[in-house]
């Protein structure tokens, strides 16, 4: 825990920016592994998670560009799921929100869905939401980290940063409703808004009710179910209306991928769609009963870090990280697409091997 009397410095702001890159990168192997485990790529749950993965790739890019604008170099390293996430240590007994930093890579199931909801939980649905302006970390949510980062820039002084666009990347070639480059404090505010809105949908200021009737969102067409399903002390287990977590048009990713209706929702709203669809069919988040209602996944697999399928995945992921470090430092490089990494993870599952993204420590 930091000293609450600590003041912002340029170095501390830069450290927060690098941590933002680590936080965004943390989600990718976790989400992609769960996505790759689903056998039917046309299943709505697969399609929902696929759109989230696309936008998480964008978040990594935007956070890295923010680093360069703040005169620091982003560091792309493989996530360590056995260690704490920088500056984050959620401690919220009422919601079990600490899953955010205790992600366990595995197939799409109740455990993974619960962690996904924890990662994307909006500040507004937590019991005591706060907007950090001091470096009083660790923070309870990703949004608190970004709130603090922007406040730190202002308190240190906007003119203390170079806002240099050199080596910043625009990996999305389609024209976007927002800038991918960070050349000013206003641009920094915008990219943070894009990241937070896509993830949490924090534009909803009021704490959602647990008794709202769900709107139909094709193709899940979620009918409302018995209010007793809303009982329980875990916010993620409360029946929430996904449409209360919208994604405004100015923050939506323009892509050649044809977005379905649920892309009008934040990641949190999309994951609620999955949970609510399962609960409508009888899934009980408290007991875990009803696992069969999840999209079919490949059979439970052994963990074999040195299996040829995992070696191929590890080499591809390491090459991707290396090339990202090169690109954001002005060197040439080509980033392996998320689709290629996803396919390698699928090969692992198809061979009854749990994907392991990094080789064992020497």
Largest sheet: none
Portion in helices: 25-40%
Distance between the termini: 32 Å
Radius of gyration: 20 Å
Mean pLDDT across all amino acids:
82
Given the structure, what is the number of helices? 8
Can you write the helix and strand succession as a string?
HHHHHHHH
CATH class wording of the largest domain: Mainly Alpha
Indicate the CATH architecture of the largest domain.
Up-down Bundle
Assigned CATH superfamily of the largest domain: Ferritin, core subunit, four-helix bundle
Low-confidence stretches: 203-238
Give the DSSP E fraction (strand runs of 2 or more residues). under 5%
> What's the total number of strands?
0
Q: Given the C-alpha coordinates, what overall shape results?
A: globular
Structure description:
This protein has eight helices and no strands. With 362 residues, it is mostly helical. It has two domains: 288 residues, Up-down Bundle (Ferritin); 62 residues. Helix 4 runs antiparallel to helix 5. The chain is globular, with a radius of gyration of 20 Å. It starts with 9 loop residues before the first helix and ends in a 12-residue tail after the last helix. It comes from Magnetococcus massalia (strain MO-1). This is Iminophenyl-pyruvate dimer synthase domain-containing protein.
């Amino acid at each position: 825990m930091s000293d609450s009397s600590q003041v912002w410095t340029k170095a501390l702001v830069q450290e927060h920016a690098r941590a933002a890159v680590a936080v965004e990168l943390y989600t990718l192997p976790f989400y992609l592994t769960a996505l790759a485990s689903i056998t039917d790529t046309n299943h709505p749950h697969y399609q929902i998670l696929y759109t989230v993965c696309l936008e998480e790739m964008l978040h990594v890019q935007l956070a890295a560009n923010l680093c360069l604008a703040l005169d620091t170099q982003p560091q792309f390293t493989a996530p360590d799921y056995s260690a704490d996430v920088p500056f984050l240590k959620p401690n919220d007994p009422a919601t079990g929100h600490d899953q955010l930093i205790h992600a366990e890579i595995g197939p799409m199931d109740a455990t993974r869905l619960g962690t996904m909801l924890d990662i994307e939980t909006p500040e507004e649905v937590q019991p005591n939401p706060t907007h950090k302006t001091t470096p009083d970390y660790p923070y309870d949510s990703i949004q608190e980290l970004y709130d603090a980062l922007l406040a730190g820039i202002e308190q240190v002084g906007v003119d203390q940063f170079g806002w240099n666009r050199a080596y910043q990347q625009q990996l999305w070639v389609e024209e976007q409703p927002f800038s991918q480059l960070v050349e000013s404090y206003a641009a920094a505010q915008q990219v943070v808004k894009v990241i937070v809105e896509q993830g949490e949908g924090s534009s909803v200021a009021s704490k959602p009710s647990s008794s709202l009737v769900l709107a139909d969102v094709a193709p899940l067409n979620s009918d409302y179910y018995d209010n007793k399903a809303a009982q329980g002390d875990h916010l993620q287990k409360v029946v929430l209306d996904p449409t209360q977590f919208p994604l405004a048009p100015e923050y939506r990713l323009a892509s050649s991928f044809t977005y379905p209706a649920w892309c009008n929702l934040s990641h949190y709203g999309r994951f609620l769609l999955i949970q609510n669809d399962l609960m409508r069919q009888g899934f009980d988040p408290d007991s875990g009963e009803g696992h069969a209602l999840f999209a079919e996944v490949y059979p439970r697999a052994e963990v074999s870090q040195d299996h040829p399928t995992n070696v191929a995945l590890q080499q591809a992921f390491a090459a991707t990280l290396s090339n990202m470090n090169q690109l954001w430092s002005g060197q040439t490089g080509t980033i392996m697409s998320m689709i290629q990494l996803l396919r390698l993870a699928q090969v692992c599952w198809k061979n009854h091997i749990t994907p392991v993204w990094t080789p064992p420590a020497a």
